[in-house]
Amino acid sequence: MEPLRTSDPAKLAGYRLLGRLGAGGMGVVFLARSAGGSLVALKVIQAEYAEDADFRERFRREADTARRMTSPWVASLVDADPEAAEPWLATAFVPGPSLGEAVAAHGPLPVRSLRLLGARLGQALGDLHAVGLVHRDVKPGNVLLALDGPRLIDFGVARDQEDTALTSTGVVVGTPGFLSPEQAGGGGELGPACDIFSLGCVLAYAATGRPPFGTGTLDALLYRTVHDAPDLEGLAEELAEVVGGCLEKDPRLRPTAQALSEALAAAAPGPGTASAPDGSPADPREALRAERPPARPGASPAESAGPEEQVPGDEAWLPEPLIRLIAERSAAGLALPGIDDTEVDASADGAPAAGTTVASSQDRTVGRRRFLLLAGGAAAVAAGGGAAAWAALSGDGDDKSSASGAAATASGPVHTIGLHADLSGDQKSIGRAQERGLRLAVDEFNSRAGKPFTLAVKTVDDGGDPAKAPVVAKQLVADRSVLAVVGPTTDATALASLATYDAASLPLIAVSPGATALLVMGSRSFLHARVTDTVLPIYLDAFLRGAAKSRTIGIVDDRAADAYAWEISSTLAGVLRDARQPAVPKVVSALRTDFGPTLEALLDGGADSVVFAGYHDRAALLARELRNCDFPGARTAAQGVLDARFLSAAGDAAEGWVIVAPVMDASVAPEARAFAAAYRKRFGAEPERYAVEAYDVARMAAQSLGTLTAGKATRANLTSALRSATYKGITKNFAFDKRTGALVADGGGVYLWKVDGGRFRYQGAAPYQVST
After folding, report:
1. DSSP single-letter state for residue 347
2. 121 and 229 co-located in one domain
3. Which of 123, 229, 448, 565 could pair covalently with 561 via S-S, beta carbons 3.0-4.6 A apart?
4. Pick from 752, 604, 615, 729: which is nearest to 672 by CA?
5. In the predicted structure, residue 704 carries a pLDDT above the cut 90
6. Residue 338 included in any domain
7. 185 CB contacts (<8 Å, ≥6 apart)?
8. Out of 52, 79, 137, 363, which one is annotated catalytic?
9. What percent of the chain has pLDDT above 70?
């Protein structure tokens, strides 16, 4: 949660606002407390959008849809006023992560969790379809996880099955990667079956950690959804048939929501389920009902699942780390102030307004007393007190900076650029290089005469541990002087911490992570300052068919590298297929250490070159096999093999390997001559990989900060400035997609490296067009 801003009201429609859960271009979702003391998610639309009759009608329909839903597995509507000057609706607050956040942070769900997840979401969709509605945007971000089961949320695009008033032919409704072929085609009939297909995608994602139709550009996702088979590799055999049925291209072949729920419930009867004489469930629907907490007479759906009524063992439907996370968030909710606590209005000079008193009673919780104590402090609750109060309340630090994020100094405000890096773990050399590149850029900026502000650097170390990444991210979030963050170092830590930064609208500029999944999580503040892993195969193809003159390319997909390997191998296979270039793709189990059979299969298929889609350690195994058989062709890989440990493990078998990577060697690149000289002078060493990339984005951030007028240097404004910026760096020209934060590639920023004499030697910019 992000603290309230000074422009936010203290109350709205009788609800006390406690913080911001999210914000978009058209409105804000607040965490609020009702007059009865319940926490709600309060969605408020900005007045200027409410003036649009069509937009107000959409919001009116969303509220109406939410009212019609009575399923216990839907976040229930508490109240709404679509006719207000700023239309709003309040739904029961679920203090758990979204499914997308949970999988990104803790990995795929176990089979039992998947069964219950699918069965209960099937029930939610069944209830929705029974009243003639279609959700049309079932995705991981619209599924919240609670202790007693999932909750389906967001009915902003839900419609009556026969309603076409607010849609048009050719418009894609839904989220690419999780929509049905009918939706991807833009004009097909959007009936209940499209929700079932989307639920199948969600279950496949929850089971494997990756979308079943991959990642990449919008056009690629839409094409695969319509034409390609889903990737269900890694899905438990007992679930493969059920999920596969949901993903049938023909909507007539998909199960109904009820049939799906029954099939999943039958696969995992819950405690107390009645059984037939042969031990099978007497009625699969009863199996699921046995796990659903019974409603109290007169209780709302949101209130009908009290812990005292849960079936024994039902609370363990999720893995322990997720249960712990939900418990922590629930406890934080209890510590928030109540509706009856006296509020503090701050005057312009930071002192409490005249007549303001702070209520204090002996029976208040410690957490609430801490909140009120902070609220009573004149400086703490001035324009930026909300941030300080939230940081202290949540234990995230002792930040004392002002709300603007800038501390006043004699030479102007101080703005901080954070570095989130692995400084002590497996990738510490990259983290250290990024820190040095960042500090060099900041030192150069601060040495300028007449600078409008001063820059500072704050670093946090996650040790390369995805479990630690969100924790250290909170340290940067809590420091209100931090207006942008460079990092984290790895895909795993970036995926684990992205939600933390996004919730605070703190711009996160990734220099070394390449996972395309970072772009499909719907972040409002993420900027991908390098091409994604799915772009690198274009350069591999250009090198192999150009300089290497390969005719048949062997592709080794190493399952030990999971999503990274899949992105490289599947994209390259698609590029070659489109070019009608022969390829021999082979998948290697993560448990296999003998690459001999794989190499034999490549040779039998006529491969005269090899691309290894995986990491450095297992690339060394293949390298030795290739050397043992005197393989004469090109041996290539992407940046996952650009690691000194590949050289030491492969020995002389590494000679001749060519690596395509989005990183420059600033020690020899002519474009980086001035940077390298300054780096040597500052640190007494040659620039390491990813130092100049961090230097580039730090200078870009400083440039964007310079475009913000006095008082406008906020995290949200900087995100907008960065996404709108163009910047000519040493490594590439920077420009971003304003909606997703993706780097707008212009054929730059990717380089060739070759192992020569036991070292990786820089070869310059990689070609991206096939030689003719």
Report:
1. P
2. yes
3. 565
4. 729
5. yes
6. no
7. 226
8. 137
9. 79
The tokens for 576 are: 């070659």
E-state strands within 543-664:
553-558, 583-588, 609-613, 634-638, 658-661
Strand partners, 412: 409
Q: How far apart are CA 127 and CA 243, in angstroms?
A: 20
Tally of domains in the chain: 4
Q: Domain containing 507: what range?
A: 407-530+670-741
- Measured distance CA(479)–CA(402) in Å, rounded: 9
C-alpha span between 715 and 690 (Å, rounded): 25
Task: Name residues whose C-beta falls within 8 Å of residue 282's C-beta, 6 or more positions apart in sequence.
Answer: 274, 275, 276
Retrieve residue 724's tokens: 């709108």
pLDDT at 244 over 70: yes
The closest of 281, 310, 263 to 72, measured between CA atoms, is 310
pLDDT band at 292 (very low <50, low <70, confident <90, very high): very low
How far is residue 508's CA from residue 500's CA, in Å, rounded to a whole number?
A: 10
Is 43 annotated as contributing to ligand binding? Answer: yes
**Token code pair at residue 191:** 């009936």
What is the pLDDT, as a whole number, of residue 400? 31
31 inside domain: no
Helix, strand, or coil here: 719? helix
User: What tokens appear for 59 in the block?
Assistant: 């919001």
Query: Do 216 and 138 share a structural domain?
Result: yes
CA separation for the pair 502, 497 (Å, rounded):
9
Q: Is 204 exposed, middle or buried (0-12, 13-18, 19+ CB in 10 A)?
A: buried
> Are residues 170 and 258 part of one domain?
yes
Tokens of 513: 């992570």
Distance CA 91, CA 404 (A): 31
| Chain mean pLDDT for the chain | 80
At 604-648, the pLDDT tens digits run: 999 999 999 999 999 999 999 999 999 999 999 999 999 999 999
- Residue where the block lists tokens 């209130």: 303
The two three-digit tokens of residue 394, written as one number: 């949540």
Type and span of the H or E element at 566 = helix 562-578
H or E segment to which residue 50 belongs: helix 47-50
Task: Please report whether residue 373 resides in a domain.
Answer: yes
Q: Yes or no: say if 174 and 156 are a contact pair by the CB < 8 Å rule.
A: no
CB of 543 closer than 8 Å to CB of 636: yes
Is the CB of residue 609 less than 8 Å from the CB of residue 583? Answer: no
* Section 697-726 average pLDDT: 93
